[in-house]
TrEMBL record:
Source taxonomy: Bacteria, Pseudomonadati, Pseudomonadota, Alphaproteobacteria, Rhodobacterales
Name of the protein in question: Uncharacterized protein
Organism of derivation: Roseovarius spongiae
Amino acid sequence: MIDTPQDHIGLTDLRASRRYFAKFGRITGHLAAVAAMMQAEERLRPEEAAILTEYVQGIAYSFRALGLKYLLVGRDPGHPLGALEMDDHESGFPVFNEILVMANDAQQAARHLAEMPGAEELKAAMVEEIISARTVPTRLQFTLSQRLYYEELQRGHLFWAQNDPRVQWLSGLKERRRYLVHWAVYDSQVNLPTIYLLEIEDTGRTALPKDGRRWPELQAHLMGQALGGLKLLTIARGLDEAFDDLHPKRLRRLHIGPMYSHAFTRQSGPLRDVLAEARAPQGQDWALAWTDELLESERVTTERAGWFGSVEREIFALDPFSGRGAETGATRMERGIVLPERPYQVLAEKNPPGFASVIKYVVGAGDRILRY
């Protein structure tokens, strides 16, 4: 057993570990289809859907790399192997430290690969050991799995603990230019990927991406505010006050997860009960939730700045229903869930409180995605 916090477990069983990674491989594949459907339904703009798909693909690559790293967990190549540590109580995702270690490994991937035999050489040595010694070449298998892991890291495009802001031009060329800035983090408090999309208007003298002063300052500011506990209203107002010539018009945050699985997680609540009752076959025992928060600027006011100047300030629209805007700090908040057909049938029959407004995407036969 691995000594872990009470809400973390180490996947030390080989079959369980491989089922876990296979499960996430399917889930991330479905998420790309869900993003395309959300675009078709006009719940996501085309540029937002493309960015979301890119981050989801990065999550998939990260899981593929970790699957290679822990490919032989539970087998003994002559020394104890580590096991993936996952948050089985809250998120169902790997713990934050796994993502940090993976980033550190990526920095040293080239050195490790230079010191290792090539893949073909390792395969030839395995065949020779099987034929001559008639033993399972566990140590060689482990070396090959680590080589494949470092090769995957070297390819890049993974989802890191911090994915720094990038900017995409939308419209405008002179006095007012509009950009879409996006960044993402792996939230260390809840062990979940979180994606930010910011539509911003630039009235500065130099275009934002070419401004050697404002663009680095904005990147640092946004990463410093990328905390799941902060309301979107707090983030947007802080940005609006820190940069007089950058005007946040639309801020969106997507929390990917938690992942629920009767076989792997111990969350409480209706979804746990639904999965337990569904008794879905292997590969269909899961549900992935997400939260979509959106804050939009409603109007602009002008404030005095200095002796003769003035600056624009945004007034943000808050959710008008039941006074929830002050509570959520957002114009709108939606929750969604992706799950296979059998768990959905149980969810529909039980109809637990609070799920009527949840957007449901159901994976049917042939991996077809249906919306309910």
